[in-house]
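Database export, one record per block. Field names are fixed; values are copied verbatim from the stored entry.
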Amino acid sequence: MNPLLDKLHPYPFEKLRALFAGATPPAVAPIRLSIGEPQHDTPRLVKDALTANLDGLSTYPTTLGVEALRESIAGWLQRRFSLKAVNPASQVLPVNGTREALFAFAQCVVDGSKPGALVASPNPFYQIYEGAALLAGAEPAFLNQTSENGFGLDLDELSDAQWARVQLIYVCSPGNPTGRVLSLEDWRTLFELADRHGFVIAADECYSEIYFDEAAPPLGALQAAEQLGRKDFERLVVFHSLSKRSNVPGLRSGFVAGDAAILKKFLLYRTYHGCAMSQSVQLASIAAWNDEAHVLDNRRLYREKFDRLVPLLSPVLGISRPDAGFYLWARTPDDDAAFARALYAATHVTVLPGQYLAREAHGLNPGAGFVRIALVAGVEECVEAANRIVDFCQSFR
């Protein structure tokens, strides 16, 4: 067996099951706010497009995807991020959701034959970044995101010698779990580092369509690159998904876009990897990328949840509205794992301990003392969960 598999950590939800072992919650309806699985209704237009194109199941799909899908994605990128041009033939590649692509990307980009290869990522982080780095033969290098630095990437935590070993950096904006959006100046600094040291940037933007102000959508990486005059999105690849935007996590549909030279190699890798998207799913995805009405309605529901929950939870957990995304990153009055277990046992509400989303780096675990609350359930269910949390916190203190 591949010995690198032994380096993988248990997934956060495995740790959560172990944490809850032996706890007996009350006989009230369970409310699970631990996993970022959208629970709003799947749009009818996506269902109709999927069932109308089931004949596509009778053919082998191509890894490059159908031209119409790549054109719809390129068009969406140009509309959403005000881009001048995106070439659907060379700068767009459909993938089976961001999780699969984020993992595979490191296997393609990292040169494991070079000793000391590093893959940088935020901390807390999406655990796929770490697993992808380890199985590519690299060592993860974590950049702590703390309240003291506004949950930004602390790029100074790595020395010049360490940056010289970085081959790939994962960036998540809007961030999971903090919801922070990188600014244009953040991107400028990151691009300068990439140029100086020659590493590739993988920008995970799967939460980019969950935001609060319709007049101020989150800045995207490709958008920042174009505004800063970077040619051909050099050293940059972005990852997008329909899961959160269109409430279709089971469709497993997304795309990568950016540097054509990198995507050419990634396409070669994926051809051997055997991860082509079903043509039926591709055609349903076209319907989703071409429609914004359902996305506006989706944001309205999330906006209502934040409007109602932030005032309830702020006095007991010190939370504030994030820049974007559907998570609350809440400070706990005690150890976060103990808090999550006690909350579950007392209220049947599930949240995720922050320490499970981070690693100890530079002398601390930046997730410790926080819990992640995913506002993915229906509006009234989220309000019910918040009321239970408030009652619990008042007694817990």
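Remark 1: Residues 181 and 246 are 20 Å apart (CA to CA).
Remark 2: The two ends are 49 Å apart (CA to CA).
End of record.
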